[in-house]
Structures are given as C-alpha cells and as structure tokens.
Amino acid sequence: MQRVTLTFDNGPDAEVTPRVLDILARRGIRSTFFVVGSKLVISRATSERAHAEGHWIGNHTWSHSIPFRDRGDVDFIQSEIDRTQQEIGMLAHPDRLFRPYGGKGRLDGSLNARAVKHLADGGYTCIVWNAVPGDFANHDGWVETALPQVATIDWPLVVLHDVHARAMQHLDRFLGRLQDRGTVFEQKFPPNCVAMNRGRQTDLLESGIVAN
Ligand SMILES: [Zn+2]
C-alpha cells in the first residue's frame, strides 16, 4: 500500500479548478491548493468552494514570477508572501502553508535566507515537493510520466496544476490508475517535503533549497 499526497498549484482558475474539485469529490480525495494571490482576487469563489469541501488552501506567492534565488529584497518577499496570505484570509490553513515558486519545478534556490527568516518570523509551514510529472509542459502525456515517477518514491507529494484544462482532462485517469494499484491518498504532507513547520526550520532546508 502506497501513500500519495496531491497538491494543485498556480490556481485558482474559474474554469479548471471546479472540474478538478468535481473529480476529487467523486473519488473522495482531499488535497491542497497552493494559490497565487493575484489569481485568488479574481476567482476567490473557486477557492472558497475548495475550502468548504475540505481541501487545504496554501500560499504560492502573489505574482508567481521570480524565484527568490533571483530576487531577494525584503519588499519583494513581503509582497509575494504577506499580500497573498492576507488575501487568503479566513481560507488559510492554521499552519499557514506556503510553497515557494521554483520556476519549472526547480527546488534549488526557491528560497533565500531573507525569505527563510521572513517565513520563520511569520510562523509559516513551508511545503516543497518530490514529484513533478510536468503536466504544465506535456498536457496529454504527463500521466505516463507520473505513474512510473510516483512508483519510485516512498511517499510522493505530487505537484499538479489546476490551470491547464487539457492536462486536467487526464486527472481522473491518473487517479483511477493509482486507486487500482491500492494507493491511499493522504492530505497531510510527507515529512521529507516539509522545509519549515510553523516557523521551525527542518533539516531539509540544509539541502540546497536556499540560495546563497
Ligand atoms: Zn507554481
């Protein structure tokens, strides 16, 4: 029996996210939606529905534009993190979930030392990932990448994106294949993907996530 955790990044999207929610509801799966603040202001009702249906809402920066490895100033960090958290408001998970923007799935340097301090001071929980099947790049073929990828990881935390309608057409098939294998879907995160827990740094931060 394998545990798998699903997360959906870069939304909400008024068209795609509700379809993803329908599929997850039908299969009885709960996940986390890491939302982009500038999109949340446009499609808030979608995230309200996700929250009401038991999914967790996390912070995935305001602009989703520049990884912290490339821009490290305090104003940018505050704008990316705090503005989004404010907008999430009552929809926030009590652990203040945050996922950095890495740029095409890159984990290294997705944080910098200032961002780490800012997240620690704010009591955030920083969630990274260990499985990126690339649904954003290969809309029709990502399931064939995802299935073997997931099979090699003890407890995969899979990053998908509720923004590409075509890619999400294959979501139900992916979930069905996993459920046929006996997969148990967990909403909580594998410990080796938690870089900070309510402001407390974990060993994972030593592993190159933080740019110099
Ligand atoms: Zn993203």
How does this structure look, described?
The chain has 212 residues and is an alpha/beta fold. The chain has one domain (3-211): Glycoside hydrolase/deacetylase (TIM Barrel, Alpha-Beta Barrel). Helix content is 34%, strand content 18%. The chain is built from eight helices and eleven strands. It has helices spanning 16-27, 37-40, 44-52, 74-88, 113-121, 142-151, 165-168, 171-180; strands at residues 3-9, 32-35, 56-59, 97-98, 111-112, 125-127, 157-161, 184-186, 194-197, 200-201, 210-211. The strands form three sheets. Strands 1, 2, 3, 7 and 8 form a five-stranded parallel beta sheet that branches. It has a four-stranded mixed beta sheet with strand order 4-6-9-10, with helices on one face. A hairpin with a 2-residue loop joins strand 9 and strand 10 (200-201). It is globular. The chain starts with a strand and ends with a strand. The mean pLDDT is 96.
Termini gap: 39 Å
Q: Based on Cα principal axes, name the global outline.
A: globular
**CATH homologous superfamily, by name?**
Glycoside hydrolase/deacetylase
What is the arithmetic mean of pLDDT? 96
Largest sheet: number of strands, sense, barrel closure: 5 strands, parallel
Structural class: alpha/beta
Question: In CATH's first tier, which class applies?
Answer: Alpha Beta
Approximate helicity band: 25-40%
CATH architecture: Alpha-Beta Barrel
The total domain count is 1
Q: What's the β-strand tally?
A: 11
Low-confidence runs of at least 5 consecutive residues? none
CATH fold descriptor: TIM Barrel
How many helices in DSSP terms?
8
Strand residue content: 15-25%
